[in-house]
Amino acid sequence: MRALALKNGMFDSKRSTFDYYYFYEGKSAEESERLSTLVISARGIPEVPEAPKSTMDKIKVWVDQGTKIYKEYPQVSEFVIGLISGAATSLLGVAVGNKVSEKKDDEPVAELNNVEPLEINDNAEPIQHQN
User: Fold this and answer.
1) CA of 25: how far to CAs of 17, 33, 72, in Å?
2) At 80, phi and psi to the nearest 5?
3) Residue 71 in domain
4) 42-61 per-position pLDDT tens digit
């Protein structure tokens, strides 16, 4: 039962640990408080569960980690930035090349033939050219 509770996040804060001992194991409130205090101190669990992070908070953490790595290892970070920019440039070149080489089917093709132009009148006869 305890393994299932651990898997489902019952031991991620003092409150959830207290709830486990109080509700699932039937301990008294004092005993549940004592056991939950022992568990969180032994495992280093916070008293209050962390609030779920939004996407912006995760991005801020990634930017902070990237900044720390950049400050600690400037040569490695310049190499990584060079790789990323080279890959982006290559992909952009391939995309532009594919777009340029596409055959455009929607443009009409002008065909020339040896038909003499017709004169605009009632009879519509070909115009005689003077040589």
Assistant:
1) 11, 13, 50
2) -65, -40
3) yes
4) 878 777 766 667 788 778 87
